[in-house]
Design a protein that fits this description.
The chain folds into 2 domains: 92 residues; 167 residues, no CATH class. Strand 2 and strand 3 form a beta hairpin. Helix 1 runs antiparallel to helix 2 and helix 2 packs across helix 9. The protein is built from 9 helices and 9 strands. Strands 1-2-3-4-9-8-5-7-6 form a 9-stranded antiparallel beta sheet. The N and C termini lie close together (11 Å). 24% of the residues are buried. By secondary structure, the protein is an alpha+beta fold.
Length: 349
């Protein structure tokens, strides 16, 4: 089991220099943007000062006032544009630095056996094999595809967004005073509704399952999704009541074979699901597939969102910040062990 102390040793032995070089490389465009913005602001300020000191003797007061007012307006306009540019470059630099940290931590957990492609999505045909969401009704996009293994257990995961374009109608009205008539105008537009936006995770399960088993969350907060979720899900079977109260409160279980499903969803496995909910408390969908695989859909949790996590970019990467990434990636990797009876997860220092 990979521990925090082992990771610190790994970082001190060579990772510190690697991440330091990556930090300054990713930060370069942000620093360049700051210097460029400062140069242009100082240039405009110098023009204003020259105008005040020298040209006020040539032009009359009115022309001088209009010119000076225009220059001041331009000064503040450029200031706003430059602040936005600096903020944009800062966000980009933070994103790139976080991406380098993420890739570094993944390489620690699986040094010789991982594929990590930030701009690649899981193939639609592969994602659709679990058969949970109806992709005939939903649009699919993804990124941050990763295939790896942890303590001999293989898994894949990828950021996934599933959305529907819902037709909306906006009503507006105006009154014609000439004809004394009130007109109603209807505007038709499409609204993107995210049905699922999070991390898709797939790994093996120890049981041999010959039927699909679907666990659909009860705690859906979005009103539209809660009302229409069963429309977008292509689950197979009928609802099954389980003995585990915690699972029944959090999930609706569907399958064709109630006896087989109760065997697969043993008390041990249901405890593992509860452990998963403690590990990552986000809303989840789970599918146990008949080829001995489990698909986990973790909503509102993604690598892309983690890469946007802010930190003080003016200071080098701290060990505490690096360890926060270690803890997150470790949780992701530990998911595969929860469904393997040969491995025991434990709390490490």
């Amino acid at each position: 089991m990979k521990t925090k102390s082992d990771f610190i040793d790994f970082y001190q032995r060579g990772g510190k220099k690697i991440l330091k070089d990556a930090y300054y490389k990713d930060k370069a465009s942000y620093q360049k943007a700051i210097k460029k913005c400062i140069f242009y602001q100082l240039l405009i300020l110098v023009i204003i000062i020259i105008n005040i000191l020298f040209f006020n003797r040539i032009f009359n007061e009115y022309i001088m006032f209009i010119t000076l007012l225009t220059e001041i307006i331009l000064f503040f306009l450029f200031l706003i544009i430059n602040i936005r540019l600096i903020y944009k470059e800062k966000k980009k630099a933070i994103y790139l630095i976080n991406e380098d940290i993420y890739l570094y931590v993944v390489s620690y957990f699986s040094p010789n056996d991982y594929i990590c492609e930030p701009e690649t999505e899981l193939a639609v045909s592969e994602f659709n094999k679990m058969g949970l969401f109806n992709l005939n009704l939903l649009n699919y996009c993804g990124c941050n595809f990763t295939a790896s293994s942890y303590l001999g257990k293989k898994f894949i995961y990828c950021d996934v967004t599933l959305y529907d374009l819902v037709e909306r109608i906006k009503h507006d009205s105006y009154y014609d005073n000439v004809e004394n008539i009130k007109y109603i105008i209807n505007y038709h537009y499409q609204d993107q509704i995210n049905i699922f936006n999070g991390l898709y995770y797939e790994t093996e399960i120890s049981h041999d399952n010959y039927n699909y088993i679907y666990l659909i969350p009860n705690n859906i907060s979005d009103k539209f999704v809660k009302k229409n979720i069963l429309h977008y899900i292509s689950y197979k079977g009928y609802r099954i009541e389980l003995e585990n109260l915690q699972i029944s409160q959090k999930y609706c279980v569907y399958s064709f074979d109630e006896i087989r499903s109760r065997y697969i969803l043993s008390l041990t496995l249901m405890e593992k699901i509860n452990e998963l909910d403690k590990l990552l408390p986000n809303k989840k969908y789970l599918v146990f597939k008949k080829d001995g695989r489990v698909g986990i859909y973790i909503d509102n949790f993604s690598i892309e969102k983690l890469k946007m996590k802010s930190f003080n970019i003016h200071k080098e990467i701290s060990l505490d910040y690096l360890l926060s990434w270690f803890n997150i990636v470790k949780k992701i990797f530990q998911i595969s062990l929860l469904f393997d009876e040969k491995n025991k997860t434990s709390k490490d220092n």
